[in-house]
Design brief:
Helix content of chain A: under 10%
Structural class of chain B: mainly beta
Order of helices and strands of chain A: EEEEEEEEEEE
Number of strands of chain B: 11
Oligomer: heterodimer
Largest interface: A-B, 25 and 19 residues
Structural class of chain A: mainly beta
Number of helices of chain A: 0
Strand content of chain B: over 45%
Order of helices and strands of chain B: EEEEEEEEEEE
Strand content of chain A: over 45%
Number of helices of chain B: 0
Shape of chain A: globular
């Protein structure tokens, strides 16, 4: 069975440009998470979805970041406009529900120049 | 807020045991986890311990939990070159919201 799939693996953009990341969770997993991992740091939760509802987005910088999970399956995370400080790895994870093990994707490494 | 502390770097010779330590702040955390991250890869859950346990052993891995001191450790027996990675401890502070430490890089010397 495929794990959590993220694309692209790498993205380089100029500052002020928009960027989007895509995540396909494990089939049947209702809970989906986006984490931000800065260099040399542990991941930090940005947003958590239960099906199509964002139930915890308190750490998402809403002035430039947005996310959606329209049909409760795939999800996209968007940054518009990107800033130099957004350079990081963006990790997606999914779990059957909010009380079971979360499985992580390989992440998208974003470089803003 | 939740805060998880880890030391940063450990080198160990192949075949020796390695011990990674972590302290956490939220005494209400139900589960505590150890994740492994290899270069260019996502996070892999290695093991976890429920907060009412003191120890858990899983093959070469031993997790010790000291709830009084909010201290978690991971011991890897017979460390192998494939164990070279960054190890993160994390606490679950409800609804699978995970607070991660900064990670501990383990380098195994052949």
């Amino acid at each position: 069975e495929a794990g959590v799939v993220q694309s692209p693996r790498y993205k380089i953009i100029e500052k002020k440009q928009p960027v989007a990341f895509w995540c396909n969770p494990i089939s049947g997993h209702n809970t989906l998470y986006w984490y931000l991992q800065n260099l040399g740091q542990g991941p930090e939760l940005l947003i958590r979805y239960e099906n199509e509802e964002a139930v915890d987005d308190s750490q998402l910088p809403k002035d430039r970041f947005s996310a959606e999970r329209l049909k409760g399956v795939d999800s996209t995370l968007k940054i518009q406009p990107a800033e130099l400080g957004d350079s990081a790895v963006y990790l997606c994870a999914s779990s059957s529900d909010a009380n079971t093990e979360a499985f992580f994707g390989q992440g998208t490494r974003l470089t803003v120049v | 807020g939740e805060d998880v502390e880890q030391s940063l770097f450990l080198s160990v010779r192949e075949g020796d045991s390695s011990v990674i330590n972590c302290t956490y702040t939220d005494s209400s955390s139900t589960y505590l986890y150890w994740y492994k991250q290899e270069p260019g890869a996502g996070l892999q859950l290695l093991t976890y311990i429920f907060s009412n346990m003191d120890m858990k052993q899983d093959q070469r891995l031993t997790v010790l939990l000291n709830k009084k001191d909010k201290h978690l450790s991971l011991r890897i027996a017979d460390t192998q070159t494939g164990d070279s990675a960054i190890y993160f401890c994390a606490e679950n502070y409800g609804n699978n919201r995970l607070a991660f430490g900064k990670g501990n890089q383990v380098v195994v010397i052949p």
